[in-house]
Amino acid sequence: xxxxxxxxxxxxxxxxxxxxxxxxxxxxxxxxxxxxxxxxxxxxxxxxxxxxxxxxxxxxxxxxxxxxxxxxxxxxxxxxxxxxxxxxxxxxxxxxxxxxxxxxxxxxxxxxxxxxxxxxxxxxxxxxxxxxxxxxxxxxxxxxxxxxxxxxxxxxxxxxxxxx
Length: 164
Ligand code: HEC
Prior knowledge:
The structure is a single chain. This protein is mostly helical. The protein has two domains: 2-42, no CATH class; 48-162, Cytochrome c-like domain (Cytochrome Bc1 Complex, Chain D, domain 2, Orthogonal Bundle). It is 53% helix and 5% strand. The protein has helices at residues 2-9, 14-33, 48-64, 73-81, 94-98, 130-145, 151-162; strands spanning 84-85, 91-92, 106-107, 114-115. It is globular, with a radius of gyration of 20 Å. Heme C (HEC) binds next to α5 and α6.
């Protein structure tokens, strides 16, 4: 599965993709015989642009707190699910718009419009474009917390989303 996804990303013509897959299938029993298995993983893998973005957030977080070591998905989950009196003077959380289970579609608490799942495991467009991510984090933190997120908060919440 992951091989196929990888080959798709290389933009090879479909025929070559099939040929390469065929070749892999041929040597696979051989690999098994040698005690090797192909690791099948569908986990989110940040692209280079996103890695740079997250790296920059780490540098900023470290500047603000020299004891900073890394972001934390557990803290991110709290930031995501805790309710606050938001921009409109009513209790709201990130989950109010993105849902408690971010692998599912959700409904925007302000506009009632559908929002596609935030989890990269089910929506491969998520967390791929730092500009888009930065723009929405800025706006969404203001919706919920009435201020912009700190580099630490943004990193934590991105780690949380990445795990889903
Ligand atoms: C009032 C509704 C609302 C709230 C509250 C909200 N969001 Fe969003 N969020 C949106 C909308 C609308 C989009 C853009 C449409 C889309 O991407 O589906 C979006 C997009 C995003 C994206 C962009 C993801 C990508 O790569 O495409 C991230 C990340 C995100 N939100 C995180 C958060 C976090 C973290 C919070 C809480 C601090 C939050 N959101 C709260 C409505 C909301």
